[in-house]
UniProtKB/TrEMBL annotation:
Domain Transposase DDE: 5-458
Organism this protein belongs to: Sanguibacter antarcticus
Protein name, as recorded: IS4 family transposase
Pfam family, one: DDE_Tnp_1_4
Protein origin, superkingdom: Bacteria
UniProt xrefs under InterPro entries: Tnp_DDE_dom, Transpos_IS1380
């Protein structure tokens, strides 16, 4: 029989200095650099019993790290427990469950405490990042972008508040907000609002709540960053409600929101001269063949809508093989959005709005770090879980922003990070009074990981 080419090894289980998930030290060093460990410990101190061995803040941080490494259940924290040389003392499964239950018993207060800790750590992370922070040089012309989007999470068993969804599934319909890092990186989850499966897609009150929660996560949101339209709220047509736009306008927030055109759209489009249509741009800022943009503001009665709202429409030849839709006009696919940005080329504003598609990537990252499956039965417990999911996303984004700024790895999503960085093999060596983590130099990205760890340690928050 021909050999397969793979070595045939004798396998045994024994004590060894080798460690798994050695690259996860990138996450623990990110926790240390941002001071997240201390802010969580302080914020959750009221939930620590007098005789408790484990700090609730450390338990929450450990769960977030476990999700970043690929876990999707409370029990997956065992991966960290098995590597105490890397992750310290990790609570047992019963202790973790009791901690989550205790936090869920007073969920509003616990969620506020976790969010406050996240906001403080985010402020330090953005300060350390300097020119690589998403709010660096934010201006009216180059605003900080917050994307809103909802997604469906399937429930495979009876869970509190799980309900039928509009896609005929069963589960939950969370609404999330992410700050966009642009082409340089991925993005940070600012807020994840867990909702019933039958929650409406265009519920203005939910959108307003999520925007408020997102703004509270921004460094200096009561001063430098907020106001003067240096923050852009971007969402699809689900957010295109009069109530949301009326709330955003006095907040002095810029917006770019999908918009449903009226029934007389074909008549409106017919009134636009051909010479007025400007060529649209593709994702690379180049002219997109077969796509044009124009403004409809002066052709519509917008007296009932907020002042300063502009309606911009795009027409495009459908891709080959695409079926026409009911709302298509003269064989053209028609889409529209509204914005209160008063200046700028229409093509640039329309491209800025279409880049909201990056939010789909952020949703995918969140689902890769625990949002795909809500593992707990009680709704309040799953709310705590969503906060931990957001925390895991923060750690991944801060890690890239602080330590991988000069490498394409800053844009890597969790699946690639786990394959290339987090699972690097290593051994722990003790010499004298020092403990060394020796990464296997044969691993292709070992040097990148070592350099990133060194960078993070140089930025560690003072004790």
């Amino acid at each position: 029989m021909k050999s397969t080419g793979y070595p045939r090894l004798r396998v045994s289980s024994s004590a060894t200095a080798a460690v798994g998930q050695a690259g996860g030290v990138l996450l623990t060093e990110t926790v240390r650099a941002t001071g997240l460990d201390r802010t969580l410990s302080t914020g959750l101190a009221r939930w620590r019993k007098a005789t408790a061995v484990h700090d609730p803040g450390k338990v929450v941080a450990d769960l977030a790290i476990a999700l970043a490494l690929g876990g999707d259940a409370l029990a997956d924290v065992a991966v960290l427990r098995g590597e105490s040389g890397l992750y310290g003392s990790v609570a047992s499964d019963p202790t973790v469950s009791r901690t989550i239950a205790a936090l869920a018993a007073d969920a509003p207060a616990a969620l506020r405490a976790i969010d406050t800790a996240r906001a403080a750590a985010r402020a330090r992370a953005w300060h350390l990042a300097g020119g690589h922070a998403p709010d660096h040089d934010a201006s009216v012309g180059n605003p900080l972008v917050i994307d809103l989007d909802a997604t469906l999470v399937t429930a495979h068993s009876e869970k509190e508040n799980a309900a039928p969804t509009f896609k005929r599934g069963f589960g939950f319909h969370p609404l999330a907000a992410f700050v966009d890092h642009g082409a340089a990186g991925t993005g940070e989850p600012l807020a994840i609002m867990l909702r019933k499966g039958n929650a409406g897609s265009n519920t203005a009150a939910d959108h307003i709540t999520v925007v408020r929660d997102a703004l509270a996560q921004l460094p200096g949101h009561h001063g430098r960053t907020r106001g003067s339209k240096k923050i852009l709220i971007r969402t699809d047509g689900a957010g295109g409600t009069k109530a949301l736009l009326e709330w955003l306008t006095p907040q002095r927030l810029a917006y770019s929101v999908g918009f449903t055109l009226p029934e007389n759209t074909p008549d409106l489009l017919a009134r636009i001269p051909e010479r007025v249509w400007a060529p649209a741009l593709d994702a690379h800022d180049q002219v997109r063949d077969g796509a044009w943009v124009a403004e409809l503001t002066d052709l519509m009665d917008l007296t009932a809508w907020p002042a300063g709202m502009r309606v911009i429409v795009r027409k495009e030849r459908p891709h080959p093989g695409a079926q026409l839709r009911f709302e298509d006009v003269d064989g053209m696919r028609i889409t529209a959005f509204v914005t209160n940005t008063p200046a700028g080329q229409l093509a640039d504003l329309e491209l800025r709005h279409r880049r909201r598609a990056r939010c789909e990537d952020r949703i995918r990252i969140a689902k890769d770090t625990g949002l795909r499956n809500l593992p707990l039965k009680a709704f309040a417990q799953n709310q705590i879980w969503c906060a931990i999911v957001a925390l895991a996303g923060d750690l991944l984004a801060w890690m890239g922003m602080l330590a991988l700024t000069d490498h394409q790895a800053r844009r890597w999503e969790p699946k690639r990070l786990r394959l290339r960085l987090f699972t690097i093999p290593a051994v722990i060596a003790r010499t004298g009074r020092r403990t060394w983590l020796r990464l296997n130099q044969r691993a292709p990205w070992a040097s990148l990981t070592a350099q990133a760890i060194t960078t993070l340690r140089a930025r560690a928050a003072p004790t």
